[in-house]
Amino acid sequence: MRNLAVVGAGVMGRGIAYVGALAGFNVYLQDINEAALDKAKNDIEQEMSKSVQRGYLQQQQVEEALPRIFYTTNLEKASREADLVIEAVLEVMDIKIDVFKKLDQICPPHTVLATNTSTMSPTEIAAQTSRPDKCVAMHFFNPVHKMKLIEIIRGLDTSDETVELAKQVGSRMGKETVEVNEFPGFVTSRMNCLIGNEAMNMLMEGVASAEDIDKAMKLGLNHPMGPLELADLVGLDTRLRNMEYLYQTLGEKYRPCPLLVKYVKAGRLGRKSGRGFYNYENRQDQ
Questions:
Q1: Model-level pTM greater than 0.70?
Q2: Handedness of CA 57, 58, 63, 64 (dihedral sign)
Q3: Selection from 150, 184, 148, 147 nearest residue 165 by Cα
Q4: Distance between CA 186 and CA 93 in Å, rounded?
Q5: Judging by DSSP bridges, how do beta strands 149-154 and 135-139 pair with one another?
Q6: 89 near 95, Cβ under 8 Å?
Q7: Is the dihedral of CA 50, 278, 92, 123 positive or negative?
Q8: What family does the database annotate (predicted)?
Q9: Calpha distance 86→7 (Å, rounded)
Q10: What is the pLDDT of residues 96-127, one digit of tens each?
């Protein structure tokens, strides 16, 4: 395992590229948008610099890792020599399937194709390829360089060898892994979406302020981040797509909170837009 390709240079894609380069992989980060690649490059360099200043990384690690990351808009260039490709595009099934179909044509026969989906079926995605045994879901968490877990979700035809390879890659990146049998939402997203949706319903009903709901969860239940803060970090549009998928597949208890729908329609998408359940435009910790 030497060459890693990451498709999609958003928050998750650039985070995966970051930890991949530090783990010693040659990483191709691909996106159709040149501006997204420029932002990813800038964010990765800034985050590594901050990590050196805070003592989490040595300067030598950064100097070795940064030259391992290559940025391109060309999917074939990124993936034609990859041993593993991790797709990190929008949580839209049609987009993911389209990416996997293209990768299946481009990549060598040995290449493992992984999706970073947090809710969707790796079986359905893998079925569109000629290598369903080499397809798997590797669900990373945001922010990738800090969060220790990868959920590894086995599709119907995923081989034991593919699961083992995914675990080895996770270990090399310094992550713990859990193996999950496919079911909508897996483990963490099913729980997290329920908690977050209920927090949004309480806010809508006037039970408590966003600040106090989050404070109660952090101090009363020992959550490291409140559910509304977390939704803002993930992106409210992403959370809404996840909720809509779980609502379709698992039923009424996952019906998206009307307040979440309203915020997305208003363009309040969380940290990335400057405003969600909190206002980040003038915050120093954004």
A1: yes
A2: negative
A3: 150
A4: 16
A5: antiparallel
A6: yes
A7: positive
A8: Belongs to the 3-hydroxyacyl-CoA dehydrogenase family.
A9: 6
A10: 999 999 999 999 999 999 999 988 899 999 99
